[in-house]
AMIN domain-containing protein (Chengkuizengella marina), 505 residues
Amino acid sequence: MKRISILLTLLLFLNVFPAVSIAGESSISLFVNGERLKLNVSPLKINGNLYIPFEFFIKELDAEVEWKSDNNQVNIQNKLINLDIYMDRSKMYLNGSALDIKNKPVIIYGDVYLPIHVISENFGMKYIWDALTQSIYIYKNVNGIQVSSSKKPNPQLEPIKDIITVTNSQSNLNPYPEPQPSAPVTDNIVIPTNNGEPTIYQIEVLEDEIVFHGNTTLEYSSFYLPNPERIVIDFEKSSFNSSFIDQETGMASGMMEVTHSDIKSIRYAMFEDQYPRIVIDLHENIEYSMIGIPEDNQVKVLLGVTNNTAEPSKDQSNDNDDIIVDDPFIIVIDPGHGGDDPGATGSVSSREEKYFTLEFAEKLYDLLDAEPWFQPYMTRTDDVKIELDDRAEFANELGADAFLSIHGNIHERLNISGTETYYWTNRGLDLAQTIHNYVVESAGLPDRSIREVEYRVLKNTNMPAVLLEIGYLSSEHDENLMLTDEFQYRVAESIVEALKEYYLN
């Protein structure tokens, strides 16, 4: 039982130890396994060190937390760990053994904060700090699964002091450094070939939209962060044009000053040195929509426009417009394989199945997430190995309505081609038949029927479950189709339509 009464006993403590004063009014966002966690007070960054409020330990660690006023001690314990931290000592005690503590706890405006390394070093968690979005991402294992409602692949789960540093703090005790402006991106920029890699070469701010120009088609994903209001856009498998590079630092990072009724500024940097991340700082919360225009190599942010208004699917039916679902159907998408389990290998590209399944699952997630009837989740959002039983248990614990396992097939006879769909027992039969019919039509590959097989992810799930072998990566014909975005979006859209028929008709 968590001892919430600790908050009362802390009052005496607060009168004994003076509070640390800090500068800055912005708030740091906290995400746990990809889900934003709402706390009464935000985490802090002080002198480059991250601190988590006491409330986190009570809410998230399944631990008892007790304040012992006689010796100014905080005790945190669960089934495996008994951790004692003293507010006035440089050591903490783990299961009775003394350990050096890097940073002492602090009090900020009457709230107690513990250093974040206490979590990462003692409770089996990892964290990353994203300075560009002022966000902390904490990852804890749920039966080996990194739970995330975001389709974006999780960053590498290693403690990093600053993944993206736009500027350094101007104050020794300022937890919220402000980025320094650099020259705005302008027109008439020479576009380098960049060895064929997609490149962003211009950001154009118009009255009701922001346009990102590339030298080829740009892949993107976005999410929203409140308090302060921000739109965050990631351009995967891309880079910035050389005009974005700061001449003093040699890094592609900076800020565009804009005069706009909705936008404060636009900041940009390379996220983990892997791909461009752009943060649009807003004056207030507004609706927005992302739309890609491949023929013009553009991505647009439409301000004040919802997804349904901006980019309706040409195949989308209006028959269900009046259907209201109080609790959306939970759909678990399972990208097959991952990590040291690569799956099949393409006969032409030698690309491993684990990458295809993740790319396809991300597209399916986006499409489902845009529908009011569905709430999608993914068993993995990165190249990690998840045990088969853990995939099924993840869906069971969520109380999912459907489980969709995505795969690419392989056969020693390279001319074998087609789509197969698997289920186990009558529980998954109707869903398998419905999805199979839609996918066969959209994929345009031979119909190799639905089959009842005792796969563990099908057998161990408590809801209708389907394993979909979309095509054969061992077939040159199938692989050439399966690895294209156009094919993947088309088939993913057909699965969404199949789920609508299954649940709404």
Remarks:
- The chain is about 20% helix and 30% strand.
- The radius of gyration is 25 Å.
